[in-house]
Amino acid sequence: xxxxxxxxxxxxxxxxxxxxxxxxxxxxxxxxxxxxxxxxxxxxxxxxxxxxxxxxxxxxxxxxxxxxxxxxxxxxxxxxxxxxxxxxxxxxxxxxxxxxxxxxxxxxxxxxxxxxxxxxxxxxxxxxxxxxxxxxxxxxxxxxxxxxxxxxxxxxxxxxxxxxxxxxxxxxxxxxxxxxxxxxxxxxxxxxxxxxxxxxxxxxxxxxxxxxxxxxxxxxxxxxxxxxxxxxxxxxxxxxxxxxxxxxxxxxxxxxxxxxxxxxxxxxxxxxxxxxxxxxxxxxxxxxxxxxxxxxxxxxxxxxxxxxxxxxxxxxxxxxxxxxxxxxxxxxxxxxxxxxxxxxxxxxxxxxxxxxxxxxxxxxxxxxxxxxxxxxxxxxxxxxxxxxxxxxx
Length: 393
Hints:
The chain is mainly β.
């Protein structure tokens, strides 16, 4: 998620002879490739089963980043003495299927930040980085925000808040990943508090794309709990040039509990869109993720079972409700099933099935970590079955 570190590298090199502080730099990565089948059933072009019926379809091919996204990164730290460290990380996502950059083609589209941390429990970082809400959501999701059927992406988080946002424009993928942001973290015993502030579309006098996200989590033994809230101004690309951006909000409560070889996950997520959508730009309205509902909420329950060190089985079901200003609500039931076999600590084989079942007032897609299977219309079901392999280094 993070940006240009050339100046930092130059400064570190220029003063290398004046300080003998310990430092470390690590290159790392992960490759995830799958062969799979995508399928949709027929649907309609209008709410409530109205309009022209669209036919379903089935395709077979190779995907990348259905599970944990393929990536290459470099991270490092320098001991500044007295318990203080300087840290940096930059990480790019790519497709194992064709080698192309993901995250809109950004070279370091997953992360790119620099910061300081202290042994006393606080840290601060600046750049393109995951929001606290995104991290808490992934921790509360049995599928960790990856694989077909995960709750994070299938709730619309990181997608619906930044309609039509341009890569590198200051609001791309917000509020999942947040450009131009400062993140402050403090940990005391079992409690961690975070506050992220993102400036959004730099140079926009309306404050478009700005983000404020406080977050608190608790981790002790088998229990981990998360609560987060975010305020987001509509991004510049999503609204007409002459209007003021509306304030969007989202919230999360969730967590997990481990007993023996089983870990249970559960949570609630809500998104409140603009009450009046007349200020949306043509680009936002034509986005494949465009919405006409006023707000949405997602509830999920998941289970991870590890009978042996080499085998992990995960199942999760989520319900996503779409609240329109008038008329019946849309509803999607999202199911994700994953079986993983660890060949080693770094290499795994997996099979993953996910399905989104929409009622006639919903047309939600099925989303993995990166790829998407769009429904054929309202009332259409979208599903995917993938056989994958991943290797980390």
